[in-house]
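Query form — protein SyrP protein

QUESTION: What is the three-dimensional structure of this chain?
INPUT:
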Amino acid sequence: MSDLDFALAEGAPPVLRVTTESPRQWVSKHRERLRAAVDEHGAVLVRGLGIRDAAQAAGVSRALAAELLPEREGFAPRDGHGDRVYSSSKWPRDQPMCMHHELSYAMEFPGLMILSCLRAPSSGGVTALADARAVLRDLPGDLVARFEREGWQLLRSYNPLVGVAWTEAFGTTDRAEVERYCSDNHIRFQWTADGGLRTRQRRPAVVTHPVTGERCWFNQIAFLNEWTMEASVREFLKSEFGPDSLPFTTLFGDGEPLDEEIVEQINDVYDRHTLREPWQDGDLMVVDNVRTAHNREPYTGDRQVVVAMGDPIRLDKCDVSRIWEAEL
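ANSWER: The structure tokens for SyrP protein are given below.
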């Protein structure tokens, strides 16, 4: 148990109010107790640190995490703020980013998400949270059983017009390096005649937390599915690129498409377990990326949130069957 005095309110994550002129020094001093609070609650919000710029955010992130990850396979552009510290994903401010676990489609993903708010938006823009254990418990049993049996598939068509180009997603212009990465990470790939890249990967939808042993709903099945897009956006992308070349979509593990009702079911369960606390300038949020899903709500104004991904976890440490190696 942490001896930091977190305020607990219904419908909100734990909030700790502090006063300090040195964010990194405070975090370094209280690191173990802060990490213990994340273990206990799944996420915490520290208010009053006064993080003013990306350099301070980077210092706080490195004080908290044992190791920071570079992003690979990102689905939306980010700006870099020094080594392994990034802007939040560039996503239309009037459209939500639905609940997900960061890089849950990758073979290595962050165990810890560290978010620093340099400037809060005029309205909206909350990074809301949801307990993945509770979501798993409340999803329909037959749906969970199928996803546990089959996993899920992510299909991507990289192009420079929507989302990120493959050169940005993989951090290289060398096709051979991309092919090695894909082979090493159980990703099927195909180069297209116009220089684009299509990929397909199969991943588990439910994992066991590597520390607590708790089962968690851990994926991006709903967020990256075409039915989560606004109808006008979905139809435009289909007409522009074709129904089989969307920038991304998700399927059942056996390749069967998901229907709109299933995607709505998943998002509805997330909604029932959502915790929200509006950002304030200088806030720090620390999230257990396996136990806790996060989103980003629509907003107005100038929202600046800096993100670091810490404490890498390999998928095979999460007690899952090796369905990602199965034939697609």
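ADDITIONAL NOTE: The longest strand covers residues 108-119.
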